[in-house]
Hints:
The protein is an all-alpha fold. Helices cover 66% and strands 0% of the residues.
Amino acid sequence: MSAIGRGSLKGGGLTATGLKARALDAALALVEAHGVHRLSVRELADAIGTGPASLYYYFKNKDALVGDLAAEGFRRLTAVFLSAQRDPRGRPVVNACGAAYLHFIREHPMLYAVMYDERILAGQPVAQAAERQAFQAFAQALAAAHDGGADVAYALWALGRGTAALCMAHGDPNNMAARDVAQQIIRGLEALLGRPLRVGDDHASPGGSVKG
Length: 212
């Protein structure tokens, strides 16, 4: 199981001690184990051995708690993009970022689902701000490689989100049906563009596989 699945935030955005960090650590573990629909402030309080009133100081309701979880997910995705840019492993940086994005989804599908819960993303400014930072980290990978880099980055970001949503509709994004969806999208892009697309490591997502 992943570090997130075990509830460990070491090496992520939450290394500080304290009740809020412990609560988010435990909440991530609960979401990975049971899904966000089972998460509640009361259950979380029980998991860390405190009273619900203590948690309401940090999270006024469940939506606020889930918003903070989403923000942590985007911070982790930002770190993934920056790592891919520092060490693209011999690939074009945009390809490395695309492969890293798909790997993140496959490693942390429950967290990714929280990050792109439409109601939470629309209603929680902390999640919106964290997503913008993740996008900016992705966009900087294209800035030097493409004219109109910001527009290209936005188009690929949208394509990546759409591809992820379609894959996750098939359940576990690691299963064959989900992988077939990603490959079908690549084939469709090849037909539209009239040329082949280079696919990076581990069947990189279309967002990271388009030749410059």
